[in-house]
Every structure is written in structure tokens, then in C-alpha cells.
């Protein structure tokens, strides 16, 4: 039965200069053992706590701890471990280019074996191993590695980028750091580490085309996601109160690293919404009123004698600074009926056949990547010189959510990955096998650029020694 005994007394510690030292709270009891301390809930500086174990158990750690000036107990809390049976471990074999030294006598529990390597060789793995209760040795047998030879192969180059690595042999824990050329963004792990088995952690990242951050606009704002701006990433423009956006509200990063469309601007809500001067027409004239071409300004088209106007006879300046309809043409009265060239559409294109646009000529509309066609895809030149249907528009498509690649496994540990797609803000958890400690972050998060936050952690053996060359 577990037994805990506490002896208590009241003490007050004084510091030089008249100050009063902090006191310690009673230490916690330990399973299968006893902590002897003076009575009282506040124990003065230098108060001693003595630890002892019940029959059949032995103390692992310090037997005494003292209350310190800062109100904490010295050392680490010991624990009581079942007394060792008469277990023995098998003798250890030699290692190539090194030797193992074992304490003389029977190899009982806690017998220590120490490894060391010949000159010019580096120990990779545990320097010490211990005989365990189950009759096996702790850890794994280390190896002696040629200090002048590579452990891992040189990593292959990456397109549109490079990596930095320290000169000399590529030994365990050598780190490489990747970077991309201007105009490219790193997708994947920025850093990889040479492992004991001669492989690199993770997978090589890629350098993907990225767009420059768009310039700010006067009297407005741009909503831009954080991190690298990869193809199909949208940015959204808005204007301050009292201003109107003239142009595209949304632009997309294109596959060639440029932005779709043209940059919009914010125009004062009380100022004129000017249109550009209309283009002159062959064999005809455009009547343009004097002064600024503000919203609702009307222009009239007419043809010279012997020519017929094909298209609208008038066009209006729209609030967004563009003209209604398509520009008309003046056609000879004796020639075949033709249609005017259809106007271009924002965020898309019109495929025109070569030659004159005569009756029954067909034109097709298409949209840029990231946009969806709203309206008819095809229009036909009609006998009256107009185009069938109405002009379609290209509407921004909802961007698909960014996903991250599955994180690679870690040596001597595991990664807990949730089911389904690894979308932005998905979290993965890292943990280590028994006898190993996680070095690094326990959690990583999928970021908007398709990479994982932080760097991949590693599981380190409790007695593992660093062998990375400086």
C-alpha cells in the first residue's frame, strides 16, 4: 500500500539587507514512496525534503531536494522504480571502425556500454546503451562513419531556383535551404535535413510562377492574400466612400506571372465620368459634342454619300467610362452587306475569321483562365449588318481552394493527418515513439500558398549526440 509521510515545521528565511525570502510549497507525493518534509504549507529557504521508496522499489534520482531562494525545489523530482530482477543482457558485438566498452562483470540491468570510433570516423547514433529490464539493450547499435565521406547524396537541383548547403561532406543533420529565382515562389518545404539512413527529410519543393504584388490605388484599397501570389489567385479592388471604381473589381494572377485585365481606378463620386474620344470611322463621320465626354454624353455616326451605316447610329458614354454598343461601319451601297468588327470583351477574346465579315459569318467568344462566359458563345452576322444575340460577358469564376501536399513521414515518430483534402488551415500533429523526444513544433498548418507552416520536426533519441560538422 502506498504510504506518504509529511513532517512539518515553520521556518522564515531572511535575506541580507532585511528582505524576506520566498517560501516553497510542499512537494508533491511520489507513487510507491514517501516524501519527508517539515509540517506547514509554506516551507522556508534551505528546508530539506527527503525521498524514500517502499519495500520492493528503489529510488531513481536525487534522495534530497532543498527549498531555493526563488521558491522552487532544487533538482528534479525522483521516482520509485520496481527493484531490478536478476535479468542479464547478451554481450554486444564489435562495430566496424570502432569499439564498444562494457563494464566488467555480469551484464545486469543498468549495465552501461560505451561506444567510440577510430580516428577520422564519427559516431552516428547512441554513444551509450544500457541493459534493460526485458534483457535487451536500449537504443540501436551506432555506426562509425567516415568523417570525410558523404552520408547523404547531393540533392538534385530544382527548376527556377537553387539551394544553399555548407561546404564539405554531407553528414547527418546537414541542412539545405531552398530559394527561388525572382518571379517564382517556393511551394513545399524550405529546408531539408540529412538523416541517419542516408536520405533527406521530406520532398524537394518546387518553384512556381508568382505574380508581383499589385500597386496600391489612389483613394481605394486592394484585398491581397498573404504569402506568395500563385496563378489563379484573385485580388479585389474597392474604393473609399465617395469614390466609384472604374474598371475591373477582380483581377487574377495568370500562369505567366502577369495580372489579368488592366488596373482600375477610383473616381470621385461627384466628378465627371469621362469616356475616351470615339475612334473615327472610314467613309463617315462621328459628331462629338464639345467639352468633356462625361456619363450620358451622346455621339452620332453618319456615312458619306453612297455608303450605308451598319450598326448603331448613336452611342452613349456609360458611368464606367466606356461606350455603349460596338462601333458601326459605313458600307458601300452597291457592295455585299457586312457587319462591323465586334468589340472586345473584358477578361476574354473574340475569335474572328480572316477577311470581310459578310452575312452568316460566325464569331466565337471565349474567356481568360479563371473566368466563365455568361451569354451566347457564338454570334452570326445578319442581313441587316448587325450581330445576332447580345454581347456576352466574362465573369470571374470562384477560385478553387488551395491544398497542401501530404506531409512526409518522420523517422522514429508519426504524423497525424486528418482525412480528406488538406485545405488551408488544416492542422497536422507530430509525435515521437517511446524513447524519443520531438525537436521542433508539434503542429503545422496548411498555408494559403500550398506550403506547411514552420519546418518539419524530428524525433531525437534521448542519448543521441549531434554529429553535424560545422
Overview of this structure, please?
This protein is an all-beta fold and 470 residues long. Helices cover 0% and strands 33% of the residues. It is built from no helices and 37 strands. It has strands at 24-25, 33-36, 42-43, 48-53, 57-60, 64-66, 79-82, 98-102, 112-117, 121-124, 128-130, 143-146, 161-165, 175-180, 184-187, 191-193, 206-209, 220-223, 234-239, 243-246, 250-252, 265-268, 284-287, 298-303, 307-310, 314-316, 329-332, 348-351, 362-367, 371-374, 378-380, 393-396, 413-416, 427-432, 436-439, 443-445, 458-461. The strands form 15 sheets. It has a three-stranded antiparallel beta sheet with strand order 2-4-6, with no helix packed on it. Strands 8-9-11 form a three-stranded antiparallel beta sheet, with no helix packed on it. A three-stranded antiparallel beta sheet has the order 13-14-16, with no helix packed on it. Mean pLDDT is 82; it is low at 1-17 and 465-470.
Topology:
Elements: E1 24-25, E2 33-36, E3 42-43, E4 48-53, E5 57-60, E6 64-66, E7 79-82, E8 98-102, E9 112-117, E10 121-124, E11 128-130, E12 143-146, E13 161-165, E14 175-180, E15 184-187, E16 191-193, E17 206-209, E18 220-223, E19 234-239, E20 243-246, E21 250-252, E22 265-268, E23 284-287, E24 298-303, E25 307-310, E26 314-316, E27 329-332, E28 348-351, E29 362-367, E30 371-374, E31 378-380, E32 393-396, E33 413-416, E34 427-432, E35 436-439, E36 443-445, E37 458-461
Antiparallel strand pairs: 1-3, 2-4, 4-6, 5-7, 8-9, 9-11, 10-12, 13-14, 14-16, 15-17, 18-19, 19-21, 20-22, 23-24, 24-26, 25-27, 28-29, 29-31, 30-32, 33-34, 34-36, 35-37
Amino acid at each position: 500500500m502506498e504510504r506518504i509521510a509529511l513532517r512539518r515545521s515553520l521556518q522564515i528565511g531572511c535575506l541580507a539587507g532585511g528582505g524576506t525570502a520566498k517560501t516553497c510549497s510542499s512537494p508533491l507525493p511520489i507513487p510507491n514512496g514517501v516524501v519527508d518534509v517539515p509540517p506547514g504549507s509554506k516551507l522556508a529557504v534551505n528546508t530539506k525534503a527527503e525521498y524514500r521508496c517502499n519495500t520492493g522499489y528503489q529510488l531513481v534520482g536525487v534522495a534530497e531536494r532543498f527549498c531555493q531562494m526563488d521558491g522552487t525545489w532544487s533538482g528534479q523530482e525522483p521516482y520509485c522504480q520496481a527493484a531490478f530482477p536478476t535479468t542479464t543482457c547478451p554481450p554486444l558485438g564489435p562495430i566496424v571502425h570502432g569499439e564498444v566498452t562494457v563494464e566488467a562483470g555480469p551484464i545486469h540491468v543498468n549495465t552501461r556500454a560505451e561506444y567510440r570510433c577510430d580516428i577520422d570516423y564519427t559516431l552516428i547514433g547512441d554513444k551509450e546503451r544500457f541493459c534493460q529490464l526485458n534483457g535487451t539493450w536500449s537504443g540501436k547499435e551506432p555506426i562509425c562513419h567516415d568523417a570525410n565521406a558523404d552520408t547523404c547524396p547531393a540533392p538534385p537541383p530544382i527548376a527556377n531556383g537553387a539551394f544553399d548547403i555548407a561546404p564539405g561532406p554531407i553528414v547527418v543533420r546537414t541542412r539545405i535551404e531552398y530559394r527561388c529565382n525572382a518571379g517564382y515562389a517556393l511551394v513545399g518545404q524550405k529546408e531539408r535535413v540529412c538523416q541517419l539512413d542516408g536520405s533527406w527529410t521530406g520532398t524537394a519543393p518546387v518553384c512556381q510562377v508568382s505574380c508581383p504584388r499589385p500597386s496600391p490605388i489612389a483613394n481605394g484599397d486592394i484585398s491581397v492574400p498573404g504569402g506568395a501570389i500563385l496563378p489563379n489567385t484573385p485580388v479585389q479592388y474597392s474604393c473609399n466612400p465617395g469614390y466609384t471604381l472604374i474598371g475591373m473589381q477582380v483581377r487574377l494572377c495568370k500562369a505567366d506571372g502577369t495580372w489579368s485585365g488592366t488596373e482600375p481606378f477610383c473616381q470621385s463620386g461627384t466628378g465627371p465620368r469621362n469616356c475616351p474620344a470615339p475612334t473615327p470611322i472610314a467613309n463617315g463621320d462621328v459628331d462629338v459634342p464639345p467639352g468633356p465626354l462625361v456619363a450620358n454624353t451622346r455621339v452620332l455616326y453618319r456615312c458619306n454619300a453612297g455608303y450605308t451605316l451598319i450598326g448603331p447610329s448613336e452611342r452613349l458614354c456609360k458611368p464606367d467610362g466606356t461606350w455603349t454598343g460596338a462601333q458601326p461601319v459605313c458600307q458601300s451601297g452597291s457592295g455585299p452587306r457586312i457587319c462591323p468588327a465586334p468589340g472586345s470583351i473584358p477578361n476574354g477574346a473574340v475569335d474572328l475569321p480572316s477577311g470581310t465579315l459578310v452575312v452568316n459569318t460566325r464569331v466565337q467568344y471565349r474567356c481568360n483562365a479563371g473566368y466563365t462566359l455568361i451569354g451566347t458563345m457564338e454570334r452570326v452576322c445578319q442581313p441587316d449588318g448587325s450581330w445576332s444575340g447580345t454581347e456576352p460577358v466574362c465573369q470571374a469564376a470562384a477560385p478553387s481552394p488551395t491544398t497542401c501536399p501530404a506531409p512526409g513521414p518522420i523517422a522514429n515518430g508519426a504524423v497525424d493527418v486528418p482525412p480528406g483534402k488538406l485545405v488551408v488551415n488544416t492542422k497536422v500533429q507530430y509525435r515521437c515513439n517511446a524513447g524519443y523526444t520531438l525537436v521542433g513544433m508539434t503542429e503545422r498548418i496548411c498555408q494559403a500558398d500550398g506550403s506547411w507552416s514552420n519546418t518539419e520536426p524530428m524525433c531525437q533519441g534521448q542519448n543521441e549526440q549531434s554529429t553535424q560538422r560545422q
